[in-house]
């Protein structure tokens, strides 16, 4: 379990980071957080399905999911109270939002929900220190037949070196680190828990889009 002081410290960092940025976040990020709309279109949420976004930020994705899948039951969590202020103003009653740490949450306690049909991690693992832990916790909350969708920065290996250097330097200003070992970590998680993995590289490895799927006969979700 993550020490409480560490949780508070990361929450404080994110609040400081986004206290003002949250006001212009979506306007500025639309140009380089690529693949998010593809992910929303591919969710294929079942009628009345439960959808959780971990590290939901401003609620931008949840708002699009609500529009694309009427009747879906939406939930979001974020460690930053500042981001949740923006998300709450945007979404209103369309989703249930809670402050929680992506690496240490219990969906039953937070939302009264025993597992989710779809879980989303969108450009969040690159900001979570224990990103592998966040993946494990999210996967543990999948219902039988559920899917965990991850979109984030790739390693930019197919792009020019100068571009990769500039991008990494820019991202570091916002405490963002592309997870270059994401694919092997997700494959290991899939093998360990009997999940299937689809892993795609987008825009010459600028971004990656991965889906972990739980089998229909998987045991009840737990956290």
Summarize this structure briefly.
This protein has about 220 residues and is of the alpha/beta class. The chain has nine helices and seven strands. The protein has a seven-stranded mixed sheet with strand order 3-2-1-4-5-7-6, sandwiched between helices.
Order of strands, widest sheet: 3-2-1-4-5-7-6
CATH-derived architecture? 3-Layer(aba) Sandwich
Morphology: globular
How many domains? 1
Total beta-strand segments: 7
The percent range for helix content is: 25-40%
Gyration radius, rounded: 16 Å
Distance between the termini: 12 Å
The CATH class name reads Alpha Beta
**Any idea of the CATH topology?**
Rossmann fold
- Find the CATH superfamily: Vaccinia Virus protein VP39
The stretches of 5 or more residues where confidence is low (pLDDT under 50) are: 1-7, 19-25
By helix and strand content, what is the structural category? alpha/beta
Largest sheet: 7 strands, mixed
Helix and strand sequence: HHHEHEHEHEHEHHEE
Q: Please tally the helical runs, counting DSSP H or I stretches of 4 or more residues.
A: 9
Mean pLDDT: 87
Strand fraction equals 15-25%
Structure description:
With 223 residues, this protein is of the alpha/beta class. It has a single domain, classed as 3-Layer(aba) Sandwich (Rossmann fold), CATH 3.40.50.150. It has helices at 4-18, 25-29, 36-42, 60-68, 81-91, 107-111, 131-140, 161-172, 182-193; strands spanning 50-54, 73-78, 95-99, 116-122, 142-153, 196-202, 207-213. The chain has a 7-stranded mixed β-sheet, sandwiched between helices. A hairpin with a 4-residue loop joins strand 6 (196-202) and strand 7. Helix 3 runs parallel beside helix 4 (60-68) and helix 7 (131-140) runs parallel beside helix 9 (182-193). The radius of gyration is 16 Å and the shape is globular. The model is unreliable at 1-7 and 19-25 (pLDDT under 50).
């Amino acid at each position: 379990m993550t020490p409480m002081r560490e949780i508070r410290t990361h929450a404080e960092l994110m609040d400081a980071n986004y206290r003002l940025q949250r006001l212009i976040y979506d306007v500025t990020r639309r140009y380089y957080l690529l693949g998010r709309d593809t992910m929303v279109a591919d969710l294929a949420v079942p009628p009345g399905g439960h959808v959780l976004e971990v590290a939901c930020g401003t609620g931008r994705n949840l708002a699009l999911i609500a529009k694309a899948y009427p009747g879906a039951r939406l939930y979001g969590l974020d460690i930053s109270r500042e981001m949740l202020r923006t998300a709450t103003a945007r979404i209103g009653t369309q989703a249930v939002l809670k402050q929680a740490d992506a690496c240490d949450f219990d969906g039953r306690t937070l939302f009264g929900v025993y597992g989710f049909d779809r879980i989303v991690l969108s450009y969040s693992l690159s900001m979570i220190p224990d990103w592998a832990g966040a993946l494990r916790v999210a996967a543990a909350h999948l219902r039988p037949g559920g899917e965990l969708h991850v979109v984030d920065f790739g390693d930019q290996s197919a792009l020019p070196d100068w571009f990769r250097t500039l991008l990494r330097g820019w991202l570091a200003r916002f405490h963002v680190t592309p997870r270059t070992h994401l694919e092997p970590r997700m494959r290991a998680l899939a093998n360990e828990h009997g999940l299937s993995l689809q892993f795609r590289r987008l825009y010459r490895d600028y971004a990656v889009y991965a889906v972990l799927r739980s089998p229909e006969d998987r045991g009840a979700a737990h956290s």
